[in-house]
Amino acid sequence: MERVSHWPASTRDSAELLVTELFDIIDERRWNELGALFAEECTYCRPGYDPLVGLSQLDRFYRTERNIASGRHQVEQIVSDLGTVTCWGRFVGTSRTGQHLDEEFIDVYRVRDGKIAFRKTYFYRPAI
């Protein structure tokens, strides 16, 4: 995985670790650990859903609403600068109905005080 950043090396490493740990928590379904990475007043914007505002809505989304039963995020690159982190890669897994999933994604994050305050996910699909 290649990194591109204007942050000092220790901050770049922190941004990379934050994203890597986030996907480990999600892929391993360790929902109780979301608060270690997300700010209490976080916002998550994801296609097909109203914005999830606050850690409790985010937790509920992952536990009960997300259409994914299992899978793995494969991050190709992480880019960070001035409190913003972007990553892209692919998710491969299975939906709750047993459908095979293989989806490219991009995530954009705003980090404040070492935690994710904002996250927005984009998928590669025709939209307009």
TrEMBL record:
Ion transport in keyword set: no
InterPro entries named among the record's database cross-references: NTF2-like_dom_sf, SnoaL-like
Alphabetized Pfam families for the sequence: SnoaL_2 (PF12680)
Coiled-coil features, chain-numbered ranges: none
Keyword Isomerase: yes
Protein keywords: Isomerase
GO molecular function: isomerase activity
Domain of life where this protein originates: Bacteria
Domain (SnoaL-like): residue spans on this chain: 19-117
The name this protein goes by in its record: Ketosteroid isomerase-like protein
Organism: Micromonospora violae
